[in-house]
Amino acid sequence: MVFLSRKEHFNAAHKLYNPNWSEEKNVEVFGPCANANWHGHNFELIVTVKGDPDPETGFIVDLKKLSRLIRDEVIEKVDHKNLNLDVDFMHGKMASTENLVMEFWKILEEKLPNITDNGKLHSLKLYETPRNYVEYYG
User: Fold this and answer.
1) Number of other CB atoms surrounding residue 75 within 10 Å
2) Most buried by CB count within 10 Å: which residue of 36, 92, 99, 114?
3) Residues taking part in catalysis
């Protein structure tokens, strides 16, 4: 079993805020992430595909196709966007990194078979900051 990863980058704004809570509780729980005027991050998304290399190409998945898939299906929908307001698959959800990575998984898991017969989505790692990230394994 071989694991192959591709890293992509995007910038986005969001706010962590529970409308069922008071302003005070939101600030207590989310701190500056509850800022009424939003805040932004330079996100890094690492997509890992696992599988056995194709005997004819030596690839699990063509990295050019994987990069294009990630950019077309995920990055273009979130880059330079407000995750709370502009991203359809985040409507009605807390715009946390945890929820975001799970939505990315749904999109990529469905589309990956279109570009590989040998690879399966193994994990997503989403860096919100250089020191804060989440990992998701479906």
Assistant:
1) 18
2) 99
3) 33, 80, 128
